[in-house]
Amino acid sequence: MDTLIREFPEQLKEAIDIGEAAKIKKHKSPIHHVLVCGLGGSGIGGTFVKELLENESNIPVLVNKGYNLPAYVGEHTLAIFSSYSGNTEETLIAFEKALKTDAKIVCISSGGKLINLAQQHGFDYIQVPGGKPSPRACLGYSIVQQLYILNKLNIINNNLIDTIPTAAELLADEQADIMVRALEMAKHLKRKIPIIYTTEGMEAPAVRLRQQINENSKMLCWHHVVPEMNHNELVGWRSKNEQLAILYLRNKSDLERNQIRIRINQDIIKKYASVYEIFSKGNNKFERMMYHVHFGDWLSWYLSELQEDIDAVEIDVINYLKGELAKF
User: Fold this and answer.
1) Domain stop point among 156, 185, 205
2) What's the first-to-final CA gap in the chain, in angstroms?
């Protein structure tokens, strides 16, 4: 896993070449909304794209992480199906339902049933490199291909595309420092239940970190977003709990009112648990998101290393679940 994390900046660069070469046909009808279908490590890319496009496109992006499709899916929908293995049960069932609509369907996968179905039905698809042991380590392929699909269908211009290589360079330049800071943070969070707080519009990195701590570190974790958590979860802080540790994912670009809220939140929560924060680096939203992704990936790996008998790649319980589901 540490090798896969270390190669993330290069993966972003490789994903650019794949995206540039992709052939995506225009749709017969105007596209009014985008739906990204995918789960886990394959689905998190859609969460990032959704937030990235909030200020870049007047076409809404929604993310579907289940078996069903929303009722609005039809001829004005771009439906992107993302499954690294190509065999994700929920995504394949949602795909079968999409066949009954007139949506523009594009698939992203390394192979498996999803690519076979795309070929069978004549749908556009982008095939990414296979053979990686963990789909969650292939986030770069997922995000970048989704952005290129949107770009080639004229839903977004080149602004976001142009930030991908600069983000890769940022991570390459900062990787050594990120590793040092992530290890130090891992020592603080060891044997704790981490709570990740962030601000609106930057939830995707918090979701990613929560999932990485779950899978790589084999630890429970939760996250919430300011200002929404100020209207509910903040009230739950009433007693000291040594098991909890709070990590704020901060950005100097965050809305000033939210930064004020965070300072007040921290004053309140410090009475009950340890509070830490990490500021992103970068000149734009994509760079800042990728900085937090890379920091979080290293943090989750160091948390696995600081525990005994933890293999960051192993997901035996998920494989057991899939085996049991296959019986029905």
Assistant:
1) 156
2) 33
